[in-house]
């Protein structure tokens, strides 16, 4: 992704005044084949918009998306359709993402037919083997989504995502709507499938424990921008951006069922409307300096494979 920009017009207030918000503000990163990039940040930071934009579920307003060297940004729809089966998405809510009127068989057959992958006689084998890969059984094919638990529904959604044998999957908070007891099972399944099908993931979550579990690289997003990105070990051993430190200072409590809590109240998060001209974290930063209010810090590499957008670190080199 290169300098990806996405804006939306929103109406607010009793007079419906229109504002422009920018959930993606020149976002750039490279994701290597077979790796997982975990994107973490508070609600409203733009991570879901990022996930949808990289697979062109919505068109960016600026920047470029490259997939295997092909610029997807302005690729005609007809050309893009040929690539579509290589990139899929698993949504957060398995209750609303599956059509309640379709059986599991029909849900899984649909992408096969859309992409003209197999004959009708061959598709059954692929559906049954894919169900097995996600931990479901052949007898489940004739059932409807409401006959399954939340975890099983998410397994169906994952089966639908992998049935076209894609190379890249966006996982948009795939466990956050599930019971804690089921979350670990789904995370283990995603890890297994990644190896089995040589998948590349863009994994979006607000939950640091799941991000750490699956990611090779972590990107921290704040108000539509990546403020820090680096190899997972590097980020965990040396968090540089004050916002990353704030997020990760929310150490998990001893009870594993207790979710991490952010230390700063959500009401303090500035709005995507009227973004400040300088550092987006200025209002909340305890280290802010006069220049932070005037200039926006660029994402700069300060360590091998580790970049940060903060003036505190720009003149430093870390090892
Ligand atoms: Fe804080 Fe300034 Fe760094 Fe922004 S650039 S995070 S305001 S020190």
Provide a descriptive summary of the structure in words.
The chain folds into 2 domains: 29-215, Rossmann fold (3-Layer(aba) Sandwich); 231-319, no CATH class. The protein contains 10 helices and 13 strands. It has helices at 47-54, 77-84, 104-114, 120-133, 150-162, 180-196, 208-214, 232-237, 242-248, 290-294, and strands spanning 2-12, 17-27, 36-40, 62-64, 66-67, 70-71, 87-90, 168-172, 200-205, 217-222, 225-231, 300-303, 306-308. The strands form 3 sheets. An 8-stranded mixed β-sheet has the order 7-8-9-3-10-11-13-12, with helices on both faces. The chain has a 3-stranded antiparallel β-sheet with strand order 2-1-4, with helices on one face. A two-stranded antiparallel sheet has the order 5-6. The two termini are 27 Å apart. The model is unreliable at 253-267 (pLDDT under 50). Bound molecules: iron/sulfur cluster. Iron/sulfur cluster binds next to loops.
């Amino acid at each position: 992704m290169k300098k990806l920009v996405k804006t939306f017009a929103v109406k607010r207030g009793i007079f419906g005044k229109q504002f422009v918000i920018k959930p993606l503000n020149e976002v750039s990163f490279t994701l290597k084949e077979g790796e997982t990039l975990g994107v973490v940040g508070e609600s409203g930071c733009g991570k879901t918009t990022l996930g949808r934009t990289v697979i062109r579920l919505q068109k960016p307003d600026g920047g470029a998306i490259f997939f295997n060297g092909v610029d997807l940004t302005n690729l005609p729809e007809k050309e893009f359709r040929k690539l579509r089966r290589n990139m899929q998405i698993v949504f957060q809510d398995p209750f609303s993402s599956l059509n309640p009127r379709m059986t599991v068989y029909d849900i899984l057959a649909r992408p096969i037919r859309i992409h003209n992958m197999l004959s009708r006689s061959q598709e059954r084998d692929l559906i049954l083997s894919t169900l097995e890969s996600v931990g479901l059984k052949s007898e489940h094919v004739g059932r409807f989504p409401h006959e399954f638990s939340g975890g099983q529904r998410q397994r169906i959604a994952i089966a639908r995502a992998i049935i076209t044998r894609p190379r890249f999957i966006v996982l948009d908070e795939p466990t956050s709507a599930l019971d804690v007891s089921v979350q670990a099972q789904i995370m283990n399944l995603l890890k297994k499938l990644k190896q089995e099908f040589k998948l590349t993931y863009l994994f979006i979550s607000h939950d640091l424990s799941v991000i750490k579990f699956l990611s090779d690289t972590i990107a921290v997003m704040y108000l539509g921008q990546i403020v820090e990105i680096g190899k997972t070990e590097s980020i965990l051993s040396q968090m540089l951006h004050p916002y990353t430190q704030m997020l990760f200072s929310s150490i998990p409590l001893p009870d594993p069922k207790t979710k991490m809590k952010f230390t700063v109240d959500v009401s303090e998060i500035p709005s995507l409307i009227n973004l400040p001209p300088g550092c987006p974290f200025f209002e909340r930063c305890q280290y802010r300096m006069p220049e932070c209010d005037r200039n926006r810090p660029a994402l700069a590499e300060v360590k091998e494979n580790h970049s940060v957008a903060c003036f505190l670190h720009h003149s430093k080199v870390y090892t």
